[in-house]
Design a protein that fits this description.
The chain is globular. About 65% of the residues lie in helices and about 0% in strands. The two termini are about 20 Å apart. It contains 9 helices and no strands. The protein is an all-alpha fold. Helix 2 crosses helix 3.
């Protein structure tokens, strides 16, 4: 759960650097990424912030990306409302993925506000296991970027932020 939510772009831009880095770290558990994105302020629009976030993610090494992916919950632990057979299948498939590629499975759909269907994750895992390493690494980076967008949207909230009480 994010501590910083609904700040609005203007408030985010005005945060002291330390607080901006902390808020961004909640979106993407990389100090290097959070620091660079914070240092890029002041952003004129959400699109500018998202573009900077994507560019900084692209600059992270594969090792940094793998460490970042390892901070995310495993598919079998994200949804409490699934039967034990499905949970077991997810855990087994995620383990096979990790053994195949050397980094954890990442799917942005697991972090969206509408939730996800565990069986869809199983199908996606099955398809992605057929990818070559280069293709899968690109897909994984794209999924991480999408997770950042989801979390940045929560950080910013609606245009203008939530009203202060």
């Amino acid at each position: 759960m994010l501590m910083h939510q609904g700040l609005g772009l203007e408030t985010f831009n005005d945060l002291p650097r330390r607080k901006a880095v902390h808020a961004l770290y909640e979106c993407c558990c990389s100090v290097a990424w959070a620091s660079r994105v914070a240092d890029g302020r002041s952003y004129r629009s959400r699109a500018d912030l998202f573009s900077a976030a994507d560019a900084e993610l692209a600059e992270l090494s594969d090792g940094d990306i793998d460490a970042l992916a390892a901070t995310l919950p495993e598919p079998g632990k994200v949804c409490a409302a699934m039967d034990s057979d499905t949970r077991g299948a997810l855990v087994t498939a995620a383990r096979a993925y990790d053994e195949r590629f050397g980094f954890p499975y990442v799917a942005s759909v697991m972090f969206g506000p509408e939730g996800f269907e565990p069986r869809e994750i199983l199908v996606d895992l099955g398809h992605r296991l057929d990818n070559d390493d280069r293709t899968e690494r690109k897909i994984m980076r794209n999924e991480l970027a999408e997770i950042n967008h989801i979390r940045l949207n929560r950080l910013l909230g609606p245009e203008g932020g939530w009203p202060r009480y």
